[in-house]
Amino acid sequence: MYVSSEHRRHVALRRMVLATSLLAALPLASARAQQTAASSAETLAPVNVTITGSRIRGTDVETAQPVFTMDRQAIRATGLTSLGDIVARMPSASMPELTPQDTLSSNNDAGGRYANLRNLGAVRTLVLVNGRRWTASLGGLTDLSTIPVSIVERIEVLKDGASSIYGSDAIGGVVNIITTDRFEGASADLFYGVNGRGDGAQKNGTFTWGRSNERASIILGASYEDGDALRDGERSTTRSAYGPRHADDGFGMGPYGGVVDPRAPADRYVIDHAGGVVGDTANFANYHPYDVASNVDKYSTAQDMTFRAGSKLRNLFGTGRYNLTDDIVLRGMTSYGVRDTRSQAAGYPLESGAGRQQGLFIDPANAYNPFPGYATSFFRRTTELPRMIWAKSKTLHADAGAEGTFQWIAHTWNWDVTYAYSETRASRTTSGNIDLVNARKALGPTATIDGQTVCADAADRAAGCVPWNILAGPGGTPDAVWNYVASTTTARQVTRTNDLVANLTGGLFDLPAGTLRAAGGVEHRRENGRYTPDPADSAGLTTQLASDPTDGGYIVNEAYLEFDVPLLTDLPLARELAVNASTRYSHYSAFGGRTNNKYSFRWKPFDDLLLRGTYAQGFRAPTVADLYAGSSESFESFLDPCDSAYGASATDAAVRARCGAAGVPGNYRQIDQSGAQIGSATGGQSPTAFRTGANPALKPESSITRTAGLVYSPGYLDGLDITLDYYKIDISDVITPILAGDILDFCYVRNDPTWCGRFARAADGHIATLDESLANLGTLRTEGYDLGLHYRFPETRYGEFTLLSDSTYLKDYTQVSSPGAAPRHLAGYMSGAQGLYRVRSNLSLDWSWRRFGATWTTRYFSGLKDSCWSADVECNRPGELNALTGVTGVSRKGGVAFHDLQLRWQAPWNGNVRLGVNNVFGRKGPFYYNVSSAGGGSPPYNPAFDIDRYFYLGYQQKF
């Protein structure tokens, strides 16, 4: 059997990393007899303290930047088992582009957990593990579910730009996962949680074992997580497309056969189905006119949808350290995880237009055709065949390196060299679509043989063709037909990162105020990947969204320098004054080089007060998918500005004139997938697939980050810490897909004719084709404040109390979609998957006494502006212009607070019990109609909100 050289390299790499871990274990075996056995498992402090935001060790330079830290106890207090969910709870974080509730998207990243800082998107948040990049997908997303919570010592979140230190992507901030690297003994941790309705159970088990001595340490562990699915149909909040207040709206194509009269194409009919019984579909007398304004012949697809996908995650991990000499340490880390997710979407809305360019018709000679002699168009949802999606992701990360110290020019210097390899292999298998080739044959001409209706073509019969009475509705299609026309296809994706990093830091010389310290380093990184759609899907031979293959990559060479300069110390109004400067040059084979600089200061006028500030340049390089992805199809929801009832043309004469000049009828109404006219300013989903794709000419996004803040720890009140930080981030050359609604707005509302060539309309006015390919377009600005109040009360006879409060205020969030376009001020709006809350705040009170403890946490979300349902329904500000949609009318909805409680007990046998309830009072929160179904999940549910009460029980046993 032939084995490629690439495969041999991957196998060799895995063996190398395993060998590194085993080598670290050998000294333990030889020294174990000299050690005193530990009476219990004990987690030790990490050997290397990571300073997020700086490469300089041994200084307080990190205090010049706003860093939020969550330790192991705080992580466990959340009652959550995914790092992505834990990070999303932080006030400075928001929901990512793909939420856990997104089961409709065909994106290969769906099902993962991602971090999104400052509402700038997961692609602009850099994720590190121990200061090193973790694996990312073709689209630039880092799945935090691949990192087991059990090995996490703490999470450090740098709420600042850091491209001069870490390179691309660190615009919104940096999430640095610090793992435990010393562990003595063994520990087993079991967790079970369930929603108040008894579904969505979460089961988690972790086992960790470690040994260490003066020269070496090793940790090995395994974790398993199993999360049951939640279904939309189980809750009134998500049972219908627009929630319980509009339960009869948003119905889609129905399951009973409908036809278009070939003699009068404007007339459509549906087979009679009283009591679910269908008569002879070939007899036109058994049909009635299709009324698009009635739900009688329609279907609520939400009842068949998964609200949250079921998932299973298995992970093996190991770390090892060995002190080769007193000054040199060898280290290695390996993590291998497998994630399986399973979700369900409603059966496919099959119609003649789904047959691509050739169309899909009931043949004139088909026995079930109610219009014999005519090629008959039809429409019908295949509810008996729901679309099932099985996604599997296998992630390998391995790194090996060395670090050490030496003396030079009378100062201590630290160095480290690391090689890291990351690989993700993902597959996505989808069933429930229709094989168009076989469907055409099954709907083709029929014959009668031995009294049976069969496919007329003998060759087709020999190949398994069975006639399909597509109009018969649920129960009218035999299994033999489904087996013939159903399609199950698989798409695969592989991404690889090879990263070699070397760093050096130490003191250069002494100044009157202290030592001038420096850091420098180089990095060589190779990113590449490919996406291989199923050949049948890619060729348009199935109803699955078609996409073209992706194959590409780039090489990055980088170098950086950082200096920390103490200016004053121990003087009046200058207990400390220092500045930090860093610069990084990055050269990408895809687009060339760029330099990013960062400057910061810290000033202590007196011991209790620290003032700090930064100015940082940043960038985000286009991802492999941005540059090289093949084009793909999507069915998008949008509002057509030319719609005469709800579009901008309804109230703006200039827009109405431009629509008319483009040939759009004056009474044009946008239709959704069911063929019905849209019923609100929320628009509707296109019945026609649009195309989106990459752009190899993209250039990087650029950013400027400014922060200023203070840290106040008054000596007269021990235990109190107050932090206040201001931030402002400006991004230009934003890489974005130009969504359908924006393209149409650019053309008609903003009167920019350069966008009008991206789409074409049919004679009746509806959008027939549209191109959403990526572009560097527009700008984005966000501005606000972070406030932290932390107070540890004096110890009392009733125990120790700690009050923690962290809040974020969003002052501004402004998008400019294209040069010359009017800015959209979106702070305080519900926008797609994320709410741009003016205020987010977490307040917790922790109590501990002897072996007992409890934590009460309140999570507050301020109110948001949403689109009105209509001018006189759910529209409390009808005269206010909606900055998100450009349509008059805003619905302002109030804030909500969720409360969590956890009780814990430290057992005398080295066990730990934690019992908790998240969302104690069962709050639901307002409904938002601007939540997107692709990315967000299940409108009108806000994906950032709790869906139910959630009960959990955890037990940890140390050995």
TrEMBL record:
Top-level taxon of origin: Bacteria
Signal peptide (from-to): 1-24
Residues annotated as domain TonB-dependent receptor-like beta-barrel: 367-920
Ranges of compositional bias, category Polar residues: 677-689
SUPFAM superfamilies named among the record's database cross-references: Porins (SSF56935)
Keywords on record: Cell outer membrane, Membrane, Receptor, Signal, TonB box, Transmembrane, Transmembrane beta strand, Transport
Protein name (Swiss-Prot/TrEMBL): Iron complex outermembrane receptor protein
Species assigned in the record: Luteibacter jiangsuensis
